[in-house]
């Protein structure tokens, strides 16, 4: 459970609304790194499709292929590729490691996990 900021994107249609949203979004991203967006205009079917696509690298790609695309975060300083769980120390005093797994897609079609080629535009 995370107490995320709720960002109402319907306010983004006016300059005044954007001015109101900016500090909320900035502070939320600085504090938690994530937000809960409402009134974004996506239908439930569109949201389901987005979540399905986001799940592809973890459910379709075999573990051996994932290793091919492992992000070398410490060496290059960015997250292109897979970041396995337990990479970061959440609490160094108690040696608690993170449980976050993600795939960052800052890559060309040649170096991207094959499962994403079907979604390119």
UniProtKB/TrEMBL annotation:
<feature type="domain" description="Non-haem dioxygenase N-terminal">
    <location>
        <begin position="6"/>
        <end position="103"/>
    </location>
</feature>
<protein>
    <recommendedName>
        <fullName>Non-haem dioxygenase N-terminal domain-containing protein</fullName>
    </recommendedName>
</protein>
<dbReference type="InterPro" id="IPR026992">
    <property type="entry name" value="DIOX_N"/>
</dbReference>
<dbReference type="Pfam" id="PF14226">
    <property type="entry name" value="DIOX_N"/>
</dbReference>
<dbReference type="InterPro" id="IPR027443">
    <property type="entry name" value="IPNS-like_sf"/>
</dbReference>
